[in-house]
Amino acid sequence: MQLPELSNSYAQLPERFFSRSEPKPVSEPRLIRFNRPLADELGLDAGQLTGPDGLETLVGNRFPEGLQPVALAYAGHQFGNFVPQLGDGRALLLGEVVDVNGNRRDIQLKGSGPTRFSRNGDGRAALGPVLREYVVSEAMAALGIPTTRSLAAVLTGDPVYREVRLPGAVLTRVASSHIRIGTFQYFAARRDTEALKILADYCIQRHFPHLAGEARPYGALLTAVVAAQADLVARWMLVGFIHGVMNTDNMTISGETIDYGPCAFMDAYDPSAVFSSIDRHGRYAYANQPRVATWNLARFAETLLPLMSADENEAVAEAEHVLRSFQASYETVLQRGFRRKLGLLTEADGDLQLAADFLDVLARGEADFTLGFRRLGDDLDTEEGQGTARQLFQDPGAFDAWSARWRERIASEATDSATRRATMHAVNPKFIPRNHRIEQMIQAASSGDFTPFDEILGVVTRPFEEQPGMERYAEPPRPDERVLQTFCGT
Ligand code: AMP
Ligand code: MG
Fold it and tell me: Which residue of 70, 89, 441, 482 has the fewest C-beta atoms within 10 A of its own C-beta?
């Protein structure tokens, strides 16, 4: 019994919420990585889970008696088109633990074999996307951004066939829950108001328990989810993260980042940046993310209308009012974030223009977003025109002009540069999981060399620290290393 504390509150919901299913055994499991600090946080026994029996559990070959694995039902808008039934086609919720902080967390196997929702898929995951999700989700957690986590990655010993033959792997994913906007859409599409109410009440109890006594609980739920997603997307924007597939089935009610498929961090700042090979029209480009989030939230609001009021006009008015709160929530987080990134400790008129102008200078200079901010902090004690930030620009003139304004602004605040640098470096990462490094890591792992995986994971999970000897992981790609497209995680 390797997962003794697992319960499964979701499996207690009505049968139409999921499909009971079991993982399909694999031939030769081999542990790639186990996340010990996360196991400790979850109160799981790392020693047992990394032993031979534990490994069999993490890959789905054996699981403790009494466990009720389920594949969750959900629907979703994929690139704007509604698909009434998606569901976990290659994932199984093993159960839940209550972590050391008292929070209920899902333990899910991803790539554990087919389920009722697999459609034509094989229910499996390839090694590359599993490692990408592991690294990027753990990097996001280290950056302080709400996200699902990665507890373990295991090779299955079985090949999966995509365009080519690839090694198969299983990821153990941990989430506050796997409930998505698409979960609500699944029941809304079936006009199953009873299920919607059960689901909404479950979400309130699990994610927003303080709302339980509200006079208008479903409007309050909408408000909370709008705020959580506004906060999330603003945080993505502040680190240059592009999710890549913001379909409504890939947006959680909890406000955690989920489903790391063709995601990427920007190198050079470009608001129109898009990497996903399947996003031909740039629907999910960097700068579109807040707009897409509001569109997705409008779809969520629609599912709640029957719960909000028997009077449809009243429900619509309430929903519209709540949806309008996205912009203010988003801007608050974004503006506070950019102030911090620029090292501004006070608020002054013109700060937002200063930040917007820096982004403009970065864009025009095709300069690296992450290093651009990081080096402002590095350069606090250097002479005007001598710093390392300006080296990021082909033509440093525009940067110098902006920098003079910025230096004047920070000089108006009484703080020593060491303190200011510390506050800037605490929000401007030095290390992000750069796309070209991830591709190189996947290439190496596919031929059995996991050294780059261990290296990049070590580096990006301490994103704000200087790490002597690891500077190459901070560098943007050379032209021949640039990754122009990322592929979906299937
Ligand atoms: P995603 O693009 O990963 O968000 O997945 C979209 C839908 O396709 C979800 O319902 C997945 O469960 C399903 N899916 C993706 N890959 C597979 C696969 N290899 N086998 C079965 N279902 C899959
Ligand atoms: Mg998905």
Answer: 482
CA–CA separation, 306 and 195 (whole Å): 12
| Cβ-based burial of 183 (10 A; exposed 0-12, middle 13-18, buried ≥19) | buried
Burial class of residue 66, CB neighbours in 10 A (0-12, 13-18, 19+):
exposed
**C-beta 490 within 6 A of ligand 1:** yes
- Digits of tens for pLDDT over the chain (490 positions)? 456 568 999 999 999 999 999 999 999 999 999 999 999 999 999 999 999 889 999 999 987 788 899 999 999 999 999 999 999 999 999 999 999 999 999 999 999 999 999 999 999 999 999 999 999 999 999 999 999 999 999 999 999 999 999 999 999 999 999 999 999 999 999 999 999 999 999 999 999 999 999 999 999 999 999 999 999 999 999 999 999 999 999 999 999 999 999 999 999 999 999 988 889 899 999 999 999 999 999 999 999 999 999 999 999 999 999 999 999 999 999 999 999 999 999 999 999 999 999 999 999 999 999 999 999 999 999 998 889 999 999 889 999 999 999 999 999 998 999 999 999 999 999 999 999 999 999 999 999 999 999 999 999 999 999 999 999 999 999 988 888 887 765 5
Instruction: Confirm whether pTM is higher than 0.70.
Output: yes
CA 259 to ligand 1 centroid distance, Å: 10
Residue nearest to atom 13 of ligand 1 (CA): 89
How far is the C-alpha of 341 from the C-alpha of 382, rounded, in Å? Answer: 18
Domain boundaries in the chain? 3-175, 181-335, 342-490
Is any atom of ligand 1 closer than 6 Å to the C-beta of 9? no
Q: Whose CA is nearest to atom 8 of ligand 1?
A: 89
